[in-house]
Amino acid sequence: MASPYLNPPLCANIQEGLQCSNGADRFFCPRCRVVQYCGEACQAAHWPIHKVETCQNPLIRLNWKPLWFAEHRVPTEPAAGTDYLGLPLNDPHRHKKLWGNMPAIDILEVNRNEGEDAKEQDFNILCAASSDLRNVVKTVCRLPDEYTAKCTFVMNDFDLDIVARNIILLMVAQHMPTKEAVPAMIHLWYSARLPVALLEMIHDKLLPLIGGRFYTYWTALRMCSDKFRRDGILLPYGASRKGFVAWNPKFLQTPGVWPIQDDVDPHCGWSHEDIMAGAPKAPNDYLGSQFNMLRALLIKFCTRAKKLDVHFRMYYMGCRQLPARLVQWKEDIGLYDRVKNLYMTNVSDRCNIGPATAISTFAPLLKPLSSNPHAIMLLLFQNAVPEIDLHTSLAARLVEHQDCQQTAANYLNYPSPHGEYEERWHPDISRYRGGVNILRNFEVPFGKFVQEVGLPKLLLDQGFKMRDANEHSVTKAWPKRMTPGGSKEEFMMRLATCYSGRAR
Predict the structure, then answer these.
(1) Widest CA span of the chain, in angstroms?
(2) Mean pLDDT, 10 residues at a time, over the chain (504 residues)?
(3) Of the residues 252, 272, 369, 431, which has the fewest C-beta atoms closer than 10 A?
(4) Cα atoms in the 13 Å half-sphere on the side-chain side of 498
(5) Which residues contact 128 (CB under 8 A, 6 or more apart)?
(6) Could you count the other beta carbons within 10 Å of the beta carbon of residue 302?
């Protein structure tokens, strides 16, 4: 039997906690384009509430400004040695990331690599710093329909809470009926509060198995993000939150610490195109779009996780210790077809273990070309460009940014600054700077980074070569970068989301 949370009612007419249960797939509010109704009668009945909460919400206005600007004061800065939550900068809870900030990828991309041979080929995939399950889910869902071989994922992360949540999600996927598992996975993964009935169902099914930032956003996206931050529940915008009263135990691991930081958003772990493929009838309902996308993807994942010969091995340790431990524990998998060394802050950057250590540690685990000519090690550099910028003179950066400054000004109708105060603190200045960064050509600073760290020699010493940007066969070389010569619409989308473009 399907869970009542698999297809939540979408008619936004909620009166005194009771929601209309009629279908709402043909009619939406034409003003905000965020919520849906079963018809005009429910829209009229709900209008006194809806107009205040949504259509007249200041966040949806084109001329919205942050409160600090409206009150003619400077933004609040954290006290010395702390962050915006008041946590010390060395507090380990600052580094807890519930979700990734790079779009999910298919780690194998067999159509562009192994091709037809993939249907009967065993795959071993090592995720040395796995983060959440999004890349694994997408990879399993994109295995060939005729796949008959064995696919093994070895996943490791240094955050025990993330490892534990991944294990729970996989157990839910493999040991609960798909139509019950999917809503349970969505809300365990993304919602801070759960229905008591859903939490009890998870306990009943699983316990026996184990033994006893807003200004740059589009208006509607800004409002949807605000709603999520207020209630912490991933549901379509107009769906009832009634019943979501039990705190998600995988969120509140540390008493008194709220884990959703101001720079973390569920939207950031998936490509905008993937999310909008799930757009409901109300096209501006970004929460509903992500819910629908996840529901469709997880239905496929749960079905395949039960049907195909897919295996998961989970580890909890620093990634540098993983290779030696795999040998010590007599890991019987052997070498790997893909080694994915990705993490939100990224282990390959110099501020982490660095490219030399990452390559020397994990290169020996990759299958040789004689075994799989498509074997690949993926390294993510999120801080390479900022590191180079830090040591580049202001004059040199101004020359580099000259062309994209004018383009950003044209796209944003950038106003002339009015005095020193607005020059420094006007929100449009921050938005403009973000726009300039989106339009940059990052090849030049990244090329300097490659030469500084001697990346070609590091790879050559291990018998590897670095693929050119146009040779990438798993993901784009610049996953978040704006398309050269891209449209204003793409520019506004990237400015509104988490896509600065500098990750390589």
Answers:
(1) 71
(2) 83 89 88 92 94 90 82 70 59 68 89 87 90 93 92 90 91 92 94 90 81 60 84 91 87 69 77 87 90 95 93 88 81 76 62 85 87 87 87 79 81 59 66 84 89 90 83 82 80 76 82
(3) 369
(4) 21
(5) 156, 319, 322, 339, 340, 341, 347, 362
(6) 23
